[in-house]
Amino acid sequence: MSDLSAEVARRRTFAIISHPDAGKTTLTEKLLLYGGALQLAGSVTARKNQNASASDWMELERKRGISVSSTVLQFDYEGRRINLLDTPGHKDFSEDTYRVLTAVDAAVMVIDAGKGIESQTLKLFEVCRLRGIPILTFMNKLDRETRDLLELIDEIENTLQIHAFPINWPMGTGARFRGVYDRIAQEAHLYERTVRGAYKAPVRVAGIGDATVKDALDSDTYHHFVEQLSLLDAAGAAFDRADALKGGTTPVFFGSAVNNFGVQLLLEALLAHAPPPAARRSRGGLVAPDDPGFSGFVFKIQGNMDPKHRDRIAFLRVCSGRFTRDLPVIHSRTGRSYRLANAHKIFGREREIIDAAYAGDVIGLVGYSDFGIGDTLSADGAVTFDEIPRFAPECFSRLSNPNPAKYKPFAKGLEQLLREGVVRVVTAHEATDAKSTLLAAVGPLQFEVAQFRLLSEYGVESRLEPMPWTLARWIGPKTPPGALDAVGLPMQSIRARDESGADMILFPTPWSLQYLSEKHPEIELLRLPPVNTSPH
Ligand SMILES: Nc1nc2c(ncn2[C@@H]2O[C@H](COP(=O)(O)OP(=O)(O)OP(=O)(O)O)[C@@H](O)[C@H]2O)c(=O)[nH]1
Ligand SMILES: [Mg+2]
After folding, report:
1. Rounded distance between C-alpha atoms, residue 383 and residue 256, angstroms
2. Which CATH architecture has domain 280-378?
């Protein structure tokens, strides 16, 4: 194997996804603890005591106890280089989560065992399936009362239409949850709780018939566990690893992230069952990860991660070749050449300059203000990746600066947030108010984040006025020239342009949209921007 292939083979790049609050950030933290990347896990539950996690570093995240932005964490574990991406669960931030899914090779789907599959989990799962991303399932919160476990497995199979294979099975649930049984190694892992789960949970490993296991469980729990295990075994299927790598089977793991139960087994399984970086589709065909020419694409921009350095990081997923310091690359959108002198390994908000990176790695490029979300960088400029999904906005607000003296920081802050895609800007066809900016978002929390960050990162107050539109449609290329000028729009609907100048119509209600499309079928209305419109 060449050096390049060997480096690719030892990389694992995955995202943690789920409905809000299932425990993604907590699990991320615990994977870092077990991966040796953190000595002490800052429990998410203890956030109120300022004991923040490595992943939720933003002030708003610490305050609210939710993730509003994805986080990249790179670390080494047992000869592997792991790129772990924690994502926000809330649907208002799904554009960020979907972008992250373009940059990974596998996903861990976290399910709250008390709740089962929730709406956002289902949506994210579908995105993974469309992209062919294999999924490992972590059934979390076994330390609480759960739903019937076999029913949860059935639910995965029926709702998601995927085979679910429990690689391990819990011994007890709720207050009686003592550990998990590894069905492949045929070993019981019995854990002890530690205070707030800050340290690894002491574990004893034993055979199922061992006295240690019987002693650890009360007799009801033990018998129930043995009975369920024999039901699972009676189903007879063996774990089909090849199918799991293709995304047809999801291996299922049980545990409690907060208590560190089952985390080690999940980490080991990730190394065993998540695939190394694969070939990526580009406009010109597949790009192999061990292709010697460097290529990668930017999937995220984040400013002000380090309050001491007010700078902007472009997160790039390396897709092929070898990144080395000072590598000359071509930025495909502008055709300009750059030398990548300032590339970093990222760990939450921390960063460290790196000298080399390979396919699968996510690297942070600091100080390249031209780089935007979706841009490709490559050695010869011939590759273009078309990865980044767009969403139609559903919320609109006017943002204004109540304090003219703060004009400059306000403009600078807003520009940065637009770069990051925290919110988007649209321009009404008939300008009404030059003093405010019309913002568009998938969900209203995005506006809240924008206002919060303007204040905390740029020191400026802002005023937000909600607007009545709830639907946006782009005008398709089939629309005859001038047709739009000739029609009268339904009440309260307006014409606008997106950031790249593409024509849109904003509608207040589904009925107004329906009215226009029935009355004027010549106007092609698209849910997403017409192709070839660059998002910049
Ligand atoms: N009882 C129990 N609570 C847990 C467990 N894992 C996480 N939690 C709690 O669940 C809550 C949500 O956890 P997070 O890790 O922030 O959830 P998340 O999925 O990252 O949430 P978002 O990023 O906002 O979507 C916190 O209060 C955690 O302490 C667990 O194993 N057991
Ligand atoms: Mg989170």
Report:
1. 43
2. 3-Layer(aba) Sandwich (3.40)
CA distance 329 to 378: 5
Domain with CATH 3.30.70.3280 in the chain: 395-526
In the structure, which protein residues have their CB atom closer than 6 angstroms to any atom of ligand 1? 18, 20-26, 44-45, 66-67, 88-90, 140-141, 143-144, 256-259
The Å distance, Cα 440 to ligand 1 centre, comes to 30
> What confidence category does residue 53 fall into, taking pLDDT thresholds of 50, 70 and 90?
confident
**Which residue has a Cα nearest atom 12 of ligand 1?**
21
Lowest mean pLDDT among 72-81, 303-312, 415-424: 303-312
Contact in structure between 30 and 44 (CB atoms under 8 Å): no
Ligand 1: centre distance to CA 16 (Å): 13
70 C-alpha vs ligand 2 centroid, how far in Å? 8
CB atoms inside a 10 Å sphere around CB 207: 12
Both ends of the chain: CA-CA distance in Å? 40
User: What's the pTM?
Assistant: 0.91
Residue ranges, CATH 3.40.50.300, the chain = 7-68+93-273, 280-378
Ligand number nearest CA of 66 is: 1
The class (CATH top level) of 7-68+93-273 is alpha beta
The per-residue pLDDT for range 433-459, each reduced to its tens digit, is 678 999 999 999 999 999 999 999 999
In CATH, what is the architecture of 395-526?
2-Layer Sandwich (3.30)
* Rounded Cα–Cα distance for residues 321 and 343 (Å): 15
> Counting ligands in written order, which one lies closest to the CA of residue 197?
1
pLDDT tens-digit map of 468-518:
999 999 999 999 999 999 899 999 999 999 998 999 999 999 999 999 999
> If you measure from the C-alpha of residue 88 to the centroid of ligand 1, how many angstroms do you get, rounded to a whole number?
12
DSSP 109-147: EEEETTT-S-HHHHHHHHHHHHHT--EEEEEE-TTS---
Nearest atom within ligand 1 for CA of residue 259: 31
Q: Using the mean position of ligand 1's atoms as its centre, give its distance from the Cα of residue 536 in Å.
A: 36
Residue nearest to atom 13 of ligand 1 (CA): 23
